[in-house]
Design goal:
The complex is a heterodimer of chains A (159) and B (116). Chain A has 159 residues and is mainly alpha-helical. Chain A has helices spanning 3-6, 11-23, 29-57, 66-82, 86-93, 95-98, 101-114, 120-127, 133-157. In chain A, helix 3 (29-57) crosses helix 4. The termini of chain A are far apart. Classes of the chains: A mainly alpha (159), B mainly alpha (116). Chains A and B meet through helix 3, helix 4, helix 6, helix 7 and helix 9 of A and helix 1, helix 2, helix 3, helix 4 and helix 5 of B. Chain B: This is Stage V sporulation protein AE.
Chain lengths: 159, 116
């Protein structure tokens, strides 16, 4: 809670805020980090195995093999999400499952499955990117700004 | 050997995400957005490609690579077509992640029923 917002509260509300802050459960940061490290590392190792597979059997280079790997991982995520397994992983691992691309896939797919009861056009179509939309928005916009600056520097700055 | 680096670097990026969640108390949406922007910035300086050469899937699997490949796609087209390429080439490389998410999302919605 920022100081700015605190000013608008009455003193009793402020007392409650400090009271609630004291009682707030301390998050086991270190333990969570260890979990995230091992689960995230494990997912990336699986990704590396898939990458190696594509490099040996389908003529991809180290740079381009990332694309089919991502697609394969999202396919696996679809199966795990559909059978309800992914949620258990995610609860255990926190950022370990959210940060790899499987987390992005899970956000899209779980939203799609969840809103299916509202129909395919308004439910699935309208809500698919409810959670993952921010990632796409900020990714695309920041990439746009960066690429724009870089192109201008290269073309007119002679970088 | 590349497997070990993939494990370590991938795990490390996830730990950064976990710290942003737990210590700075950001929501998952904020965390992922920040990581993507971070990947785009690293990609802009050409540092992310070195990380991919070094760690393989440890760098391509985390969501940060999404920002990197957006920048790279835009730059690739910009080299050929100038400024307008920044927009036309944006999804050139990232296509696989987004399109597979959409396609498998639709297939998932057809196949599976929501639980709970």
């Amino acid at each position: 809670m920022s100081n700015n917002r605190k000013k608008n509260l009455t003193s009793i509300q402020q007392q409650y805020q400090t009271f609630a802050k004291d009682r707030e459960k301390k998050r086991p940061v270190f333990k969570n980090c260890i979990k995230a490290f091992f689960v995230g590392g494990f997912i990336c190792t699986i990704g590396q195995a898939i990458t190696t597979f594509y490099m040996y059997f389908f003529d991809f280079t180290e740079q381009t093999a990332g694309n089919p790997t991502v697609a394969t991982l999202i396919f696996i995520t679809m199966l795990l999400t559909g059978f309800g397994v992914y949620d258990h992983f995610a609860q255990f691992a926190g950022a370990g499952t959210a940060v790899p691309v499987t987390g992005f896939g899970n956000a899209v797919i779980s939203a799609a499955i969840e809103h299916r009861t509202e129909g395919f056009v308004l439910g699935v179509g309208g809500n698919m990117f409810k959670l993952a939309g921010s990632v796409i928005l900020f990714g695309v916009f920041s990439a746009f700004v960066i690429a724009l600056i870089k192109t201008i520097l290269i073309q007119w700055g002679g970088l | 050997m590349v497997f070990l680096w993939a494990f370590l670097i991938g795990g490390l990026i996830c730990v950064i995400g976990q710290i942003m969640l737990d210590v700075f108390k950001l929501t998952p949406g904020h965390t992922l957005s920040a990581l993507v922007v971070g990947g785009a910035v690293l990609g802009g300086f050409g540092l992310y490609e070195k990380l991919i050469d070094f760690a393989g899937a440890g760098a391509t699997v985390p969501i940060t690579s999404f920002g990197n490949s957006l920048v790279n796609g835009a730059m690739q087209e910009a080299d050929q077509h100038g400024l307008i390429g920044v927009i036309t080439g944006m999804f050139e490389i990232t296509s696989s992640g987004i399109s597979s998410a959409i396609i498998f999302g639709m297939i998932g919605a057809i196949l599976f029923k929501p639980k709970g």
